[in-house]
Structure formats: structure tokens, C-alpha cells
Design brief:
The protein is an alpha+beta fold. It is built from 2 helices and 7 strands, in the order ββαββαβββ. A hairpin with a 3-residue loop joins β1 and β2. The protein starts with a strand and ends with a strand.
């Protein structure tokens, strides 16, 4: 089982292959935003990797980061990442202080849109 370490929240074992956004909310009980329901549209599920950033990235995530001009190293969309390795990260977008009424739309178990994987460059 991969271990997800979240600055300020602790370390959590999560099921292999689970979407990171779901692991953060369901297993770590973090108030991680996911306004678009994990569709790689809104960037509200951003996290900052400290260690263990996955080398693979979906084409959808790559395009969303490009369009939104998010270029800072280590910033990724938790809705587009599978938990397949140990990771250490910081939550950037939380419900607390956001002014939103809830975390966002329901998130499916599978990455949406259907992932086309590439290597992060």
C-alpha cells in the first residue's frame, strides 16, 4: 500500500491505484477541493509535491496546467494522479477559507477523462 504523507496532517496508507483526490478526502479526511468533480477542468484540487511526485501525467492534466499557466515545479492536480507510490505533499486548495459551500461534485473511482498517459517533462 502506498503511503501518502501530508504536511500538517500525518501519513496515511491508501489502496494501490486509488485516485489521489479520493485518497485525500476519504482516507486522510482532508478538506481537499475538487470543484469540477475530478475532470481536470478547474485546478481546485492542486497539491504541491515535496517528494515522490509521479513521473507520469495525463494529457488532460498537462493541458489544464498549461492553459491555466501553472508552471511552478511540483504543482499537480490530485484528480489526475493514481496512488501507486509513496508521496509527500502539501494541500494547496482547501475548503476552509475558500468561501465554497462544499468540496465539489462527486468524483468517480476512475480518472476522468479517460487517461492518456505521458511522461512529465
Amino acid at each position: 500500500m502506498p503511503k501518502i504523507t501530508i504536511n500538517g496532517s500525518g501519513a496515511f496508507d491508501v489502496p494501490q491505484g486509488k485516485r489521489l483526490v479520493k485518497a485525500l478526502v476519504e482516507d486522510a479526511n482532508v478538506d481537499q477541493l475538487h470543484a469540477c468533480g475530478g475532470q481536470s477542468r478547474c485546478t481546485s484540487c492542486r497539491v504541491r509535491f515535496i517528494a515522490g511526485e509521479p513521473e507520469q501525467i495525463t494529457e488532460a492534466e498537462k493541458e489544464t496546467l498549461r492553459v491555466r499557466e501553472i508552471t511552478e515545479e511540483g504543482i499537480r492536480l490530485s484528480c489526475q494522479i493514481e496512488c501507486n507510490q509513496d508521496m509527500e505533499l502539501e494541500i494547496i486548495s482547501r475548503l476552509e477559507g475558500s468561501g465554497r459551500k462544499d468540496l465539489g461534485s462527486p468524483v468517480s473511482d476512475e480518472i476522468q477523462p479517460d487517461p492518456v498517459w505521458t511522461v512529465k517533462s
